[in-house]
Amino acid sequence: MNQIVENRFFSLKKLIPKDVKILAVSKNQDTSSVEKLYRVGHRDFGENYIQEMVKKYKKLPKDIRWHMIGRIQSNKLKYIIPFIHLIHSIQNIKQINTINKIASKHHKIINCLLQIKICDDKNKSGITCQEASKILENEAFKKMKNVKIIGLMGIASFQELTKVHNEFSYLRKLYDEYQNKYGHYILSMGMSRDYNIAIKYGSTIIRLGTIIFGNRKKTI
């Protein structure tokens, strides 16, 4: 099975531009699959749940770059701040304030992305561009020294391709605006079903799970 994972990964890597980072989404995958990609040089892995990420962090090599891509539970952030590489799913100033406080105790600066809602699916999380601007212009946030917003993340709908194109186009335009104004440099969009479209709209990180690992195993 691990050989299949490795083959899928290298096949994908040949097709994806070198300036686009592959984030291997290891949610509900066993550690052996993560280890296999690690052994062939991959270092960026994404998780949806803090508890699962912490368990894997304890078992796996410490130079893995862990990305939090799921909903944030502020009361559990303390468990990942010591080792997290990038948080993709920030949606309010309370989360940012909590991260800043915990990170200051560890003498760390935590990089984060704002998750923008780009589709009308009620099951998809995210904030509006107005809410994002309010966060970035917040005077308290501007004074924080241990947290940085360095880009945007979005999840497209499961609907027809025309709609997905429109959603990614919207996020790219917002990203360009924020890049000019705030210096953002990361655009995280695109998953196994739509990463090719996301790349066309300038995604710098694509989040790939089942297309690499196959079906989720629901085990650590």
Chain-wise SSE layout:
Elements: H1 2-15, E1 21-25, H2 31-39, E2 44-47, H3 50-59, E3 65-68, E4 86-90, H4 93-105, E5 110-116, H5 129-136, H6 139-143, E6 147-154, H7 161-182, E7 186-189, H8 195-200, E8 205-208, H9 210-213
Helix pairs in contact: 1-2
Question: Explain this structure to me?
Answer:
- This protein has helices spanning 2-15, 31-39, 50-59, 93-105, 129-136, 139-143, 161-182, 195-200, 210-213; strands at 21-25, 44-47, 65-68, 86-90, 110-116, 147-154, 186-189, 205-208.
- The model has no long low-confidence stretch (mean pLDDT 95).
- The chain has one domain: Alanine racemase (TIM Barrel, Alpha-Beta Barrel), CATH 3.20.20.
- By secondary structure, the protein is of the alpha/beta class.
- The chain is globular.
- The protein is 41% helix and 19% strand.
- α3 links the parallel β2 and β3.
- Strands 7-6-5-4-3-2-1-8 form an eight-stranded parallel beta sheet.
